[in-house]
Write a structure and sequence with these properties.
Elements (H helix, E strand, L loop, with lengths): L3 E9 L3 H10 L5 E4 L8 H4 L4 E2 L8 H11 L6 H9 L1 H11 L14 E2 L9 E2 L5 H14 L4 E4 L2 E10 L6 E10 L4 E12 L20 H8 L4 E2 L4 E8 L12 H4 L3 E3 L19 H15 L4 E4 L5 H7 L1 H9 L9 E10 L2 E3 L11 E3 L4 E2 L12 H19 L24 H17 L6 H24 L4 H22 L23 E2 L15
Parallel strand pairs: 1-2, 1-9, 2-6, 9-16, 15-17
Antiparallel strand pairs: 3-5, 4-5, 7-8, 8-9, 10-15, 10-18, 11-14, 12-13, 13-14
Helix pairs in contact: 1-6, 1-12, 3-4, 7-15, 13-14, 13-15, 14-15
């Protein structure tokens, strides 16, 4: 039998943003948290570098804001940047209160701050080189102690549920249809408020640093429900992902370059100093394009990141995770350079929200990488992402608590109808479509783009979406089918956004439009079922 759940707040996603919001609500609301697999899976767990915040007396809010605006290539929303940075210290203090153990200076009570690309000061607080794991594991421990938070593992959201709002001429979000992948059934989860915290969409590319769960689920569901999305063309490629046939998606933290690592060609020559005055500390888009250019120019498989000139003790203390992981593949980073290539890493665009995380659909919020806040502009500056997760989760929680009592309990939604579908006997179609989609996105909508490549991608995504829609209509849903459908949606949004930007800016580089326009504007896509439009409900 299909189940029906009712909570005050439904949180789709269990990373830093989702868990922070759940904890911020736990004393006043009953919260359900959905996890696609296990609660500790997702991008947060694998984040290495740290969290940017103004914590040092030599640093300032204005400096952090300025660095972010510069890295964002003129497209950051200054109000969102300032809002985030002004709340950065409080966010770190909250994490410390939860029990996160950040690295301290040797023999000192002061926290060790590192510097990364684009930052003018040391302002990255971290837990060695496994900050995400330290933050995520601490938040999970805190969530498990809260009786008002119910965690549902192996639950994959399929579609959002909307109803007419009795207090306005708008639609409101009242829950989601959710696949219990272990029980193989679709249940109904309803709530006064729904929060999307599903992460980004980098799995749309063949090579990525992200876990398999980064399939753009929240962005796709919000778009289908009538929410605007913005700046989907700006997908950040991390410059340094480990290049090894057995290393699936291990990124080499930017903090290595912050602590003096050099990028070298196969012959040992450094190349960044001749391409940018900031050398290895240039923003990620510049470094990623430089590596991509050198690989294509030389016809080599990768370049090399070298920190072996630092002492073994220094490397072991600051980068134990990278050292251990590389040793698994026979690479001793204290003695030899690391082979690296760029890989899709972060989705700078997403669902349009305000500073409280509110979307176009009433009572639907989006936070973290799923959202478009205006913070990142055309290129995310290193270590601003986890900060955004905490700051906007807490801001959304404040807004939700302010209005929760005034929100009506939703009407009971009908059960999921799968009476006219059958079990699939051709799952190979899903795997083939998945591979084709990610491969043409890498080839045609990657680090460097052209009009002709985007036209090819447009043609292919239309064919794929037709096949996927037919498959979705005739067969029972599965986790793989849900993710494929969502990936196809975000791929279309990325391609459409890239087509509309007739310039090169930040992470979007076009050979047909190599110059930056004097006018900076967001690429905002509006769905035909735009959720903010008034609705008329028949009384008959």
């Amino acid at each position: 039998m299909n189940k029906h759940y009712l909570h005050d707040v439904l949180v789709v996603g269990s990373g830093a943003a989702g868990l922070t919001l759940a904890l911020s609500l736990a004393q006043h609301a009953k919260v359900a948290v959905l996890c696609k697999t296990l609660v500790n899976h997702g991008s947060t767990w694998f984040a290495q570098g740290g969290i940017a915040a103004v914590l040092d007396n030599q640093d300032s809010i204005d400096a952090h804001v300025s660095d972010t605006l510069i890295a964002g290539a003129g497209l950051c929303h200054e109000d969102a940047v300032r809002f985030t940075v002004e709340n950065s210290k409080a966010a770190i203090e909250w994490l410390i209160q939860q029990g996160v153990m950040f690295t301290r200076e040797s023999g000192s009570a002061d926290y060790h701050l590192t510097q990364e690309g684009g930052h003018s000061h040391r302002r990255i607080i971290h837990s060695a080189d496994a900050t995400g794991q330290a933050v995520h594991s601490t938040l999970i421990e805190q969530v498990q102690q809260q009786p008002n938070i119910e965690v549902f593992e192996h639950h994959v959201a399929v579609n959002l549920i909307t109803q007419a709002d009795t207090n306005s001429r708008k639609l409101r979000c009242t829950g989601a249809y959710v696949l219990d992948s272990q029980a193989d059934r679709v249940d109904v989860f309803q709530a006064k408020v729904v929060v999307l915290a599903t992460g980004g969409a980098s799995k749309v590319y063949l090579y990525t640093s992200n876990p398999d769960s980064a399939s753009g689920d929240g962005i796709a569901m919000a778009w289908r429900a009538g929410c605007r999305v913005a700046n989907m063309e700006f997908n950040q490629f991390h410059p340094t992902c480990l290049y090894h046939p057995k290393a699936k998606n291990f990124l080499i933290t930017e903090a290595l370059r912050g602590e003096g690592a050099y990028l070298r060609l196969p012959n040992g020559e450094r190349f960044m100093p001749r391409l940018d005055e900031r050398a290895e500390l240039a923003p990620r888009d510049i470094v990623a394009r430089a590596i991509d250019h050198e690989i294509k120019r030389l016809g080599c498989d990768c370049v090399y990141l070298d920190i072996s000139h630092k002492s073994p003790d220094f490397i072991s203390e600051h980068f134990p995770t990278v050292k251990a992981r590389c040793l698994e593949f026979g690479i001793d980073i204290t003695k030899e350079p690391i082979p690296v290539v760029p890989a899709a890493h972060y989705t700078c665009g997403g669902v349009v929200v305000d500073n409280a995380g509110r979307t176009d659909l009433k009572h639907l919020y989006a936070i973290g990488e799923t959202s478009f806040t205006g913070l990142h502009g055309a290129n995310r500056m290193a270590s601003n992402s986890l900060l955004e997760c905490i700051v906007y989760a807490q801001s959304a929680a404040r807004d939700i608590l302010h209005k929760l009592e005034q929100i009506d309990v939703p009407e009971t939604s009908p059960q999921w109808d799968d009476s006219r579908v059958r079990n699939s006997d051709e799952d190979v179609v899903i795997s083939h479509n998945w591979d084709e989609l990610r491969r043409f996105m890498w080839d045609y909508v990657g680090i460097v783009r052209t009009h002709k490549r985007l036209e090819r991608a447009t043609h292919r995504i239309k064919l794929l979406q037709k096949e996927i829609a037919e498959y979705y209509s005739n067969y029972k849903v599965s986790s793989d089918l849900i993710e494929l459908r969502n990936l196809a949606t975000v791929a279309e949004l990325i391609i459409r956004s890239a087509h509309e930007r007739k310039e090169s800016r930040g992470l979007h580089y076009s050979l047909d439009y190599p110059d930056k326009s004097p006018i900076a504007r967001d690429t905002i896509l509006v769905p035909t079922n735009f959720a903010s439009q008034d609705i008329i409900v028949s009384k008959s």
